[in-house]
Amino acid sequence: MIRLFPNAGGWLEVVCGPMFSGKSEELIRRLRRAEIAGQRVLIVKPQIDSRYDIGHVVSHAGAKMRAVAVENPADIPGLVDDYDVVGVDEVQFFPPEILLILDGLVEKGMRIVVSGLDQDFRGLPFGPMPELLCRAELVDKLQAVCHRCGGPATMTQRLVDGSPAAADGATIVVGALEQYEARCRSCHELAAPGFATG
Ligand code: ADP
Ligand code: MG
Ligand code: ZN
Q: What residue ranges do the domains of the chain occupy?
């Protein structure tokens, strides 16, 4: 038998990919399995993501698990002290301090499973994701189905009033009237800077 993690110490897993690729579903699946194994599990998520339900992680297909919304990475260690496995959803929204905080939890022997967008709507690395991907023991990059051609989608398309968002739009637009689709590289579009309102 191959033992992936022979040491008793903690480790970091990253689940990434575009929107609709099943990251939240996969996070919930891994934490449910840990629960079945008798481990104490908790999911945290950034306060910014209040799209569905502030007390839960909810996938686009309806899978749901309780989660604690935190404003600041420094709030996490106090919350997860009694847990064996800690999930972090939408981890791309956290500031760089998340790296040291999660390193500390791994050093203490915890299994950390983070999920988040590897790329922003432009296709550029999103927040702390490059560092997390580099540090992780285990990485999974999921694909969605391209909303336009049905092929494997690795990118997130932002639409403002149905048109591609401009390349110089803000990365995070809270509460904006915008829409997102999963797209493959060839169907992904960006408007010229200053061209659209996004
Ligand atoms: P993520 O957290 O990556 O945004 P979720 O786990 O919330 O993804 O949702 C994944 C689910 O979304 C899929 O199981 C599927 O039911 C649904 N879904 C809707 N649109 C798509 C799409 N274009 N590609 C893949 N899954 C999709
Ligand atoms: Mg998600
Ligand atoms: Zn496509």
A: 6-142
> Which of 23, 51, 59, 118 to mutate to test ligand 1, by most ligand atoms within 8 A of the CB atom?
59
pTM value is: 0.92
Residue 155 CA to ligand 3 center (angstroms) comes to 10
Topology (CATH) of 6-142: Rossmann fold (3.40.50)
Contact predicate 198/173, CB 8 Å: yes
For residue 82, CA distances in Å to 10, 39, 86, 109 come to: 14, 10, 10, 12
pLDDT in tens, 23-45: 999 999 999 999 999 999 999 99
For residue 191, what is the DSSP state?
B
